[in-house]
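Repro case for the chain-ordering regression, as requested:
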Amino acid sequence: MATEILMPALSPTMTEGKVSRWLKKIGDMVRAGDVIAEIETDKATMEVEAVDEGVLSAILVPDGAEGVAVNTPIAVLGGNDTAASAPVAAPRAAIAAIPAAAPAAPAAPHAAAEQDWGATSPLTVREALRDAMAAEMRADGDVFLIGEEVAQYQGAYKVSQGLLDEFGARRIIDSPITEHGFTGMAIGAAMNGLKPIVEFMTFNFAMQAIDQIINSAAKTLYMSGGQMGCPIVFRGPNGAASRVGAQHSQCYASWYAHCPGLKVVAPWSAADAKGLLRAAIRDPNPIIFLENEILYGQTFDVPTDPDFVLPIGKAKIERAGTDVTLVAFSITVGIALKAAELLAEQGISAEVINLRTLRPLDIDTIVASVKKTSRVVTLEEGWPFAGIGAEINMQIVEHCFDYLDAPPGRVHGLDVPLPYAANLEKLALPKPDWVVAAVAKLF
Amino acid sequence: MAQAADGRKGRKPRLTNEPAGLDRDTLLRAYRDMLLIRRFEEKAGQLYGMGLIGGFCHLYIGQEAVVVGIQLALKPGDQVITSYRDHGHMLATGMQARGVMAELTGREGGYSRGKGGSMHMFSKEKAFFGGHGIVGAQVSLGTGLAFSNAYRSNDHVSVTYFGDGASNQGQVFESFNLAALLKLPCIYVIENNKYGMGTSVERSTASRDLSQNGSPWGIASLQVDGMDVDAVKHAADIAVAHCRAGKGPFLLEMKTYRYRGHSMSDPGRYRSREEIQKMRSERDCIEGARHKLAAFDVDEAEIKRIDDEVKRIVQDSADFAQTSPEPDPAELWTDILKEA
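-- result from build under test --
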């Protein structure tokens, strides 16, 4: 039985090529692996090997022929019974228009109004984070904490204080200063069903590991057709601290919020920290949990209910208002609340939204507020270009443009690497006055 | 029995060409599994040439003895993870040829329902953890699989394959440190096929003996003739016993060779045709196994029966890969996040 040798595709982009020259002639015996011809592709000249055995019985395209389309028969191998079966035409799935349910950005499920958790007691953000980890580790033996100085040193920022005593070195693991390696290791453990909490001493150092976070943790569920999950929490301080210079003072919110396959959480208060971290540890997906060093020592009232947990993907209205919406997350929630007080003195009623989660974004809460106030200013500590404010304001324009009485505004860190000098650093970071000025422009 | 080198004691690893002494049936199975990979990859190359497989496609032809020999030393539940040259590893772990080929053609019947492609397939059932496209990334992940075994105090091992090219990645050395520090049951297998894409080991790597790459951390190692399935199995037995006994990681450097290009669009100008033909004609692992089988009085009819069975499986997988429908457009939006 004769086998046709077809013009092969020799690169991902090749549609046609040139048969430079034949290295076998009619009548030659060809073995699998023999080079039979040289073909010039869009990238290079390649040698083509025979796949089957047999005598070359015909050459259909001569030396030097150009523009030969892929899959054109170029020769015939006559001979034995190993002929390849003809390709069966592929039934193509109906070409649909863009799938109907194609959200441009992930939307959070609409959650019920804030649950009343009853009695509270004061707690620092630092303690709230520690309590959240301890509670989840008591409940689930698969949860462990790994990071630099988390165990014997009791945490670089004392967030993991006391955990080694309670859970031992098997579950509270001091890592070497090798973010790339230990992050990849934790992701591998998560793929096999464990539930790691990876503490980055700061998110600045997670850049060493960002390939593993995006390419391995965020994408594997999709690439595996849903087989391989990655239940893991990456947490640590994010954003500017105080006079630690440009390499240690950066907000990564928009970097991670850009990526499908991740959830990105950014708590402000101690209650946020406790309730959201517990939810993050229970969540079956990779979670980026952006803390803030300056907030660690701040005290807030936190529900004492042992079951206290907050939903990921749901924003909180921290202060109700009617004239302008301030959308903030993490440390900028405090700035927004101070600005709201200053605005109140001027007779402007500001509504302050604490996003709590950046991906999936609770756009419903934002839109409902903007429809009420008709004016909006976003706040973030990070840089403006392709920032969180840029995304939120674009979504507002998409969802409720007709309700706006003024262009959406944004307050953000200045577009410079953060300087060290005290006066310069102060000039670069958002403050309540900037918010008041941004709001003034809307009236 | 070859002694594993212990870097801490400064002993050199030895090249072990020592056979495990595979019995007739095991050798037949090895022959069959290697042949299946060879024929499968040849068919994949054909389908690529026909435009039915897109993008990148990295064939394993020539290296079959490595994965087949190591798999013979494992037990169900031991994890396997590798790079993007992964079709052979999947078939060796027992994943179905149909599902692998259909993933190559991007069809619904593929292991990732068409959403992963050649470089990204997984099987929870066979403990195969991919299929990774970033050079070296699987080494940290495989170390994590070993970590999960240690954490659970079971006696499973994780086999983490990577190439000579990846062996220079920083995270590989970070992983060696972690595995040695935490005594993780991780078998690192360097498949040294002499070229990282088009750059020879001599031009990319200051280390002249990759089996020594773990020695600063005291990682026991062996250098192995990766073209001999019997020698591979012998070395794998040693590594597996070491890891199961809780002695920490083990490094195997497999001296092997790929006959085809790095990927389908590799013109192969960095090595001579003679070099390839010499390996093919003198060192081929399948021919070698066939030769050994003759000593067991395995007759031509039995070989022919295996050849036919393999041919049937491969042809069936190719037919399936062309008839399985493309994924439903709704698949675009599934498997991004799990329901919380």
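Ordering looks correct now. The domain at 3-78 of chain A is CATH 2.40.50.100 (OB fold (Dihydrolipoamide Acetyltransferase, E2P)).
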